[in-house]
Write a structure and sequence with these properties.
Helix content: 25-40%
Number of helices: 7
Radius of gyration: 20 Å
Order of helices and strands: EEHEEHEEEHHHEEEHEEEEH
Distance between the termini: 19 Å
Strand content: 25-35%
Low-confidence stretches: none
């Protein structure tokens, strides 16, 4: 079984983003972190600087057991609160000012450098099926998300509720895709995922919501899954907290990989935002990873 992330330096991620500098009210920083998830890093900086978390903005949530570089914005920070910070495994580098807060999704991709252990064979590929990875689900995020839809009482802040609800939608998306490829030729299965031997034309698959039009084969699969889960589309209309109500978005079924190299047991490649390196690694080595599996 392939092993990664023995130590944080084994898994390096660099966020790719375009920032526009001006005399705006947002200060932009490059954030390096080691063995921190993004929210924990932001909370740590917030406590140390006495700047509220709501003043921070960031484009994506990066892996915990890793060394990652990403970009954050802080609303009107006082320089003296930032420049003297000395935090273990966290480093902020001031870049300049801009007019816009950095929000989720503002990055356009991520560059990876990953040390791989215990692999047997290597099958290079420039594409893979765009499954959500286990980082999206955690231990029980998707289960909490389903409880939210079932209107069970869940005591969490709004950000956590949104994350868990999207984890459940991601769970349904993954299962829709697996059903779509079930029993199709030119596929192989690794650790609960179904992969393709040959690239196909990309499709846009909806992430299920109250307003999703359930048509064609994908629609029939979602109807089957919702019935199996005991969920209806109306359940996504959460009248008790309208902040949790969103609309349908679409996710690429197939993503292309750029700049793939494998040298000295280390992978180098670039993925578009929202795609998971751990999923791609399974396809590259046709083995499961010594990490928690998907639900």
């Amino acid at each position: 079984m392939v092993t990664i992330k023995k130590t944080p330096p084994d898994f390096k991620v660099e966020e790719l983003i375009n920032l526009s500098y001006s005399n705006g009210k947002y200060a932009y920083f490059k954030l390096f972190k080691r063995d921190y998830d993004t929210l924990k890093a932001i909370e740590t900086i917030s406590r140390a600087s006495k700047i509220p978390v709501k003043s921070f903005g960031w484009a994506g949530n990066k892996d915990k057991r890793a060394e990652t570089t990403q970009y954050i914005s802080i609303l009107n920070p006082k320089k003296e609160k930032i420049k003297n910070l000395n935090l273990r495994d966290l480093k902020l580098t001031f870049l300049g000012y801009g007019a816009k807060k950095i929000n989720l999704g503002n990055n356009y991709g991520n560059k990876f450098e990953i040390k791989v252990y215990n692999y047997k064979e290597y099958y290079p590929s420039n594409f893979f099926i765009n499954y959500f990875g286990e980082q999206r689900f955690g231990k029980n995020n998707w289960i909490i998300g389903k409880k939210i839809l079932k209107k069970e009482k869940i005591v969490l802040d709004i950000k956590r509720k949104r994350f868990c609800l999207f984890a459940y939608q991601s769970y349904l998306w993954n299962n829709c895709v697996k059903e779509y490829f079930k029993d199709k030729p030119n596929t192989f299965k690794i650790g609960g995922y179904i992969f393709l031997n040959k690239q196909i034309t990309n499709l846009k698959i909806p992430i299920i919501n109250f307003d999703t039009k359930l048509k064609s084969n994908i629609g029939e699969i979602y109807k089957y899954l919702l019935k199996k889960e005991g969920i209806s589309q109306k359940d996504f209309i959460i009248k008790s907290d309208p902040r949790l109500i969103t609309e349908t978005v679409y996710r690429d079924l197939i993503v292309e990989v750029k700049d793939l190299r494998f040298e000295n047991s280390t992978l180098h490649f670039t993925l578009p935002k929202g795609s998971y390196a751990t999923v791609f690694i399974r396809q590259l080595f046709r083995e499961d990873i010594a990490n928690p599996r998907l639900p």
